Amino acid sequence: MKINNKSPKSKKYLYVIFGVLVLVLIVGCIYYFFNRQDENTVEKYGSSQINPDSNVPIAKENKGGSGGISNPKTDDGSNQTSAPNDDITPASPMGTFVSNHHPNLGGQPAPNTVSSTCSTTPGVDCLIRFTQGSVTKELSAQRTDSNGNTAWTWTLQDIGITQGDWKITAVAINGNKVITASDPMMLSVGL
């Protein structure tokens, strides 16, 4: 006959230790998974900022408004707002990505001048991307103001938009965090 030397109290203690170890292991796995995912994003897309939806490099900020694209100033007269901490994922972009979904290259009967707006997290970069098959055109990235807004006034020729239907995507960027939103309507450009 075998005698059990362990008291019920010591068995409870072993169960508690085992439960704590299992809990620590689960929390450690979750922590590793989420941190590893961020490292993979940086590894995959690199510091040159690639849009994960299209694998197209993201344009650099347009500081001078060249190419006929204008960026209105914020209330204090500056274009810049300091960027938030890189850990913050931008809010999904909203706004009027294009003011006219049916412009014409010749300006008649519909004008070829378009306005675009993007609203997201204050201090992040935002751009508007146009895709037709494998061709991509972009409005240069601009930093959002203290209210999270930025805007462009541009012509189709400024960024090389040609006749046909173009998918419209707004892109909000904060460090390696990239969030996109698509316009449900296409930009349908006529002659």
Description:
This protein has helices at residues 8-45, 156-159; strands at 113-119, 125-132, 135-143, 149-155, 164-174, 177-182, 187-189. With 191 residues, it is an alpha+beta fold. The protein folds into 2 domains: 1-45; 49-191, Sandwich (Immunoglobulin-like). Helix content is 22%, strand content 27%.
CATH architecture of the largest domain: Sandwich
CATH superfamily label of the largest domain: Immunoglobulins
Count of discrete domains? 2
Question: What structural category characterises the helix and strand content?
Answer: alpha+beta
Taking the alpha carbons of the first and last residues, their distance comes to 98 Å
CATH class of the largest domain: Mainly Beta
Characterize the largest beta sheet: strand count, sense, and whether it forms a barrel: 5 strands, antiparallel
- Report the mean per-residue pLDDT as an integer: 75
Quaternary form = single chain
- Which term fits the overall shape? elongated
Rg:
25 Å
Poorly predicted runs of 5 or more residues: 36-68, 72-77
Kindly state the number of beta strands.
7
Q: Helical segment tally?
A: 2
- How much β-strand is present in the residues? 25-35%
**CATH topology (level 3) name of the largest domain:** Immunoglobulin-like
Succession of helices and strands = HEEEEHEEE
Helix percentage: 10-25%
